[in-house]
Design goal:
single chain, flat, mainly alpha
């Protein structure tokens, strides 16, 4: 064909109008109207033009993520119920030719409960029981059917009886409390105010890096307004809502927790026989180096502030507002840091339902162009990630229904509003500053972080829904077709997974501000003098969480194949794609090993949902232990498998200093470890 007669190459466009999107056809992005809208004589609307734009680097990453998600949803291979068996594959399991039965999982779930119910795991647990049991000494831990049952038991908890009668922070009760502290002496409300300001600073220095859902200037504004109203007027101002006050209380409470040093987990290495009380005592030695609060309190200010929060949460629960959702999100963070997983899950569920109501209300009011503020976008996606992490263990899907709006609420973008506080504090003390450093570079960075974590969590949710579909157990397929179909789906998911992570901005995996300063603050100097390293440093635990999700994705995508090889070891040698299937099993084991190594890091803290991290660690360590007993897997295991298993068990012991229920999981890991060593000694 003559070169001149060929059709010109099609041009990719970054946007498509609503008409072309609705008809699922390519849009030529014509301005003011595309060609289709001209032909149809209809209004041509580009939906993205209604939203505030983010910088070019962020947009490239997000568009790439969106294309991967669109491809995933539109691919016929991901509709499990419509995926037919590959009839062209050779099969030795045709009816009438053999009587070998295929063992399928009794349920398809991605959580730890499912792995714990594997027959081989139960066998290892039985083998790992002590050979002699002292009848006079009852077992320390109960025998449970599921690993999440331990969180539902009423374990004894230490509850302080603090006489708190008011949720106000500038009341006579609070004044008397501060006067009882050593090295303070006679003080008034003006002297209490700097102590609260220090707690706010501690929150934004230690906790805001993980949950960037509120603005520092807004919290200071609420604090100063509370000071004015309670010290001078003794009551709430007309424009002050209980939810705003509750957010202030939660920030102060979490700030007090941060300066106490109890958010840091014990440092490595742990001694083999070190007890849980000793590990807890070692947490007390991890006080922050830059402790902003210089007062040593006789009793816990944190406990007093939490009691005040509880007095307000009841009325705040009646609000469906941004502030109310922020309250319950921070309450979930606090309860998670205190090791109360079920209560933390409940509060993030309440926050998620409020986010759903807000999103639904906005779409009803502005059907064509719903507008979501940047603070709400950040909150929505932070809550989405955290609820999904809980739901991956307690249930299969996030129960709030907020996933219905994941295609409606955009990812966060930098807020273009002025970062300075535009209000008059009415105070003339020198320490009452009414301006803050420019927050736009930090906004850019957190927009990258929240958007990336949310996109990865969405992908993992969808991969889980595809691979662990509950209808899988009803399939009637022979072994060859079943494994071939699973392998085909896993390969497609794996290609999306690798592309998603290879497209991540490298600076998100760095803790050096000079690596990402040019990206979040274009055109500015990168000299050390211009970079506030305290404000713009990336926390190592954030890097660990991002890397951990990569390995978790490998584990989730490839685990169904590994599970079927475990259940049917006598059939793997007969499969025509044996090598490819075992490669997928190797990828699963590599994901487990990489996840364990990633979280074997310093510093580790309890602020980032250790429940989900601990449950994933428990599951992966069990899988690695089981793999050491299977001859077909021994050549697939990493050379340092015993070291990795030891790392995982030490991680679980560290996590148990925060989540006390993990002591039960540690005991179960001990039994599985004894059981596998007995099997390996017998085989040798």
């Amino acid at each position: 064909m003559d070169q001149t007669t060929r059709d010109p190459p099609r041009r990719r466009v970054a946007q498509a109008c609503s008409t072309c999107r609705g008809r699922k056809i390519r849009c030529d992005a014509g301005v003011p109207k595309c060609s289709l809208c001209i032909d149809l004589n209809v209004e041509c609307v580009y939906l993205d033009s209604q939203y505030s734009k983010i910088d070019a680097g962020t947009r490239v990453v997000l568009e790439r993520i969106q294309r991967l998600e669109d491809r995933l949803l539109s691919s016929s291979q991901f509709s499990v119920s419509n995926t037919a068996a590959d009839l062209d594959q050779p099969s030795i399991f045709e009816p009438g030719h053999n009587d070998i039965m295929l063992t399928l999982p009794v349920s398809h779930e991605a959580n730890a409960d499912h792995v714990y119910r594997w027959p081989i795991v139960q066998e290892l647990l039985d083998r790992g029981l002590p050979e002699t049991i002292n009848p006079e000494r009852p077992p320390t831990f109960p025998k449970l059917c599921d690993v999440t049952d331990i969180f539902l038991l009423d374990l004894p908890q230490h509850s302080l009886n603090i006489g708190i009668g008011s949720w106000h922070i500038f009341d006579d009760e609070s004044l008397q409390y501060f006067r009882r502290q050593p090295r303070i002496g006679s003080i008034d409300f003006w002297d209490i105010l700097p102590q609260y300001e220090n707690l706010i600073s501690a929150f934004f220095a230690n906790i805001h890096a993980f949950y960037p859902i509120i603005r520092q200037e807004q919290i200071y504004k609420t604090l100063h307004a509370a000071f004015n109203s309670e010290v001078d007027q003794h009551g709430l101002q007309d424009d002050e809502k209980p939810s705003q006050y509750c957010v202030l209380l939660m920030v102060l409470c979490l700030g007090a927790l941060a300066v106490s040093g109890n958010v840091q987990l014990p440092k490595m290495p742990l001694q083999p026989q070190e007890s849980s009380p000793n590990l807890w005592a070692r947490r007390q030695d991890n006080l922050p180096k830059d402790n902003l609060v210089v007062v040593e309190f006789v009793d816990s200010l944190e406990d007093r502030l939490w009691k005040k929060v509880q007095l307000l949460l009841g009325s705040v629960s009646l609000e469906d507002s941004l502030g109310a959702a922020q309250c319950f999100t921070l309450a979930s963070v606090y309860l998670g840091a205190k090791g109360r997983a079920v209560d933390s899950d409940h509060n993030i569920h309440v926050a998620a339902r409020k986010c759903k109501v807000i999103a639904r209300r906005e779409t009803l009011m502005h059907k064509e162009y719903p507008e979501f503020s940047d603070p709400f976008r950040r909150l929505f996606w932070v809550v989405y990630v955290n609820e999904s992490d809980f739901a991956s263990e307690f249930s299969l899907t996030p129960p709030s229904g907020m996933t219905l709006f994941e295609d409606v609420v955009p990812y966060p973008s930098p807020d273009e509003t002025d970062s300075e506080m535009g209000y008059d504090t009415g105070l003339d003390k020198s320490h009452m500053s009414n301006s803050f450093p420019d927050s736009r570079p930090y906004d850019n960075f957190t927009a990258f972080q929240v958007s990336t974590s949310s996109a990865i969590r969405r992908f993992i949710n969808r991969a889980t829904a595809v691979l662990y579909n509950p209808h899988e157990v009803r399939r009637k397929e022979n072994h060859t077709a079943y494994i071939t179909r699973l392998h085909r789906i896993a390969c497609e998911l794996r290609s999306h997974h690798e592309a998603l992570h290879k497209g991540l901005p490298p600076f998100l995996l760095s803790t050096d501000p000079t690596d990402f300063w040019p990206q979040i603050n274009p055109g500015k100097s990168t000299s050390a003098d211009t970079i506030d390293r305290t404000r713009f440093s990336n926390h190592l635990w954030n890097v660990a969480r991002l890397r951990g999700r990569y390995f978790a994705g490998l584990y989730i995508i490839n685990r169904p194949l590994l599970e079927n090889v475990l259940l049917n070891p006598h059939l793997i040698d007969l499969h025509p794609s044996k090598t490819e299937v075992l490669d997928s099993c190797r990828e699963c084991l590599f994901g487990c090993s990489g996840f364990v190594k990633t979280f074997f890091t310093e510093p580790a803290n309890c602020l980032t949902n250790l429940f989900a991290t601990g449950m994933a660690t428990f599951t992966m360590v069990i899988i690695l232990m089981v793999a050491t007993t299977i001859p077909a897997f021994r050549l697939l295991l990493p050379a340092d498998i015993e070291s990795v298993i030891s790392m995982g068990r030490q991680n679980m012991r560290r996590f148990s200093t925060c989540v006390k229920e993990f002591e039960w999981h540690n005991a179960e890991l001990e039994k599985v470890d004894r059981g596998r060593h007995k099997i390996n000694r017998t085989d040798s």
